[in-house]
Amino acid sequence: MNTTALQGLKVLDLSRVLAGPWASQLLGDLGADVVKVERPGAGDDTRSWGPPWVPTAEGTPSRQAAYFQCANRNKRSIAIDMATPEGQALIRELAAQADVVLENFKVGGLKAYGLDWESLKALNPRLVYCSITGFGQEGPYAHRAGYDFLIQGMGGLMSLTGRADHEEGAGPQKVGVALVDIMTGLYATIGVLAALRHRDATGEGQHIDLALLDVQVAALANQAANYLTSGVAPKRMGNAHPNIVPYQDFPTADGDMILAIGNDGQFAKFCAVAGHPEWATDERFATNPARVANRAVLIPLLRQATVMRSTAEWIAALEDAGVPCGPINRLNEVFADPQVLARGLKVDMPHPQFGSVPLVANPIRLSATPVQYRVAPPTLDEHGAAVLRDWLGR
């Protein structure tokens, strides 16, 4: 087996739920030895966030939630009571051996335990310490707890997601997964790797202050740029795009499809397939700015055309013409898709209690140091004795 990219790196994971565990799972996928510290008896909150529950090897419910499995592979679990002096001392010993500490407690929450950045830096000056909070280490909201749903609302994402105000079913809508937590986990991983690069060059660790709200605002991307440039707050547009037309869902004879036309050449090809080549030369539709300006005229014309064929017929014809398009799949269709199967996006990992657990593969493909699936999401305190032996020589 090839060497992993982060082989030899020790990560002490004091985080729970999703944003922090997503980051530590990614570091584990890349080869780091990730030790997950959990509460005795209960563990990470997401262990009980079911149903659905992962079935045991005998097929009976285990009372271990599928949610926990999604963010905790390639980690070793140790149960430590952080509320006791003995538990705090043990975590400090582990932190003294760690390269990275991840935590997502409220601001100042770990100081009373002697597990905050300043305390652990004194023990281990080379430590990279990443704090994930809802609102950051300072500011008027710093003391507040942060949750993905809350941040999607406060950070503007829900003002952009959902049907337009004049449409039936209009109203703000959250994204169907905890996207802010996921993005924060990715930013945390990037920050950790950057801090490690600096540490390796200088010998100095550092503190990473990462806030869910900051991540959400940063991820507004073109919508934020549109507002900052124009002073006009974007509104909900359903599945339509504020800057590109046509770039949305359209009805077909037996369902729906997505058209993602990104330039005028692709639009002309679509018009030819649709039997309306005149649209491509119509001054109202010939260029993307014109199509954006005349969206209200063009979209009804396209809808009248798209309902004349099935989704499969449209996709076959448009793919032959080089026009970006696709179906709107349910998850059963996603995991049966030939491309998803070819890319191996579902992996099964052996598990001592469940026989095996189905998981989604890491999408990073490294040619020299590929991701390895070494350890299934652990049972609570599964590796306590091994961690003490490997990290502390006990």
From TrEMBL:
SUPFAM superfamilies: CoA-transferase family III (CaiB/BaiF)
Family annotation (InterPro entries): CoA-transferase_III_domain (IPR050483), CoA-Trfase_fam_III (IPR003673), CoA-Trfase_III_dom3_sf (IPR044855), CoA-Trfase_III_dom_1_sf (IPR023606)
Keywords: Transferase
A Pfam family annotated for this UniProt entry: CoA_transf_3
Keyword Secreted among UniProt keywords: no
GO molecular function: CoA-transferase activity
Lineage: superkingdom: Bacteria
The keyword Cell inner membrane is annotated on this UniProt entry: no
PANTHER family: SUCCINATE--HYDROXYMETHYLGLUTARATE COA-TRANSFERASE
Name listed for the protein in its UniProt record: CoA transferase
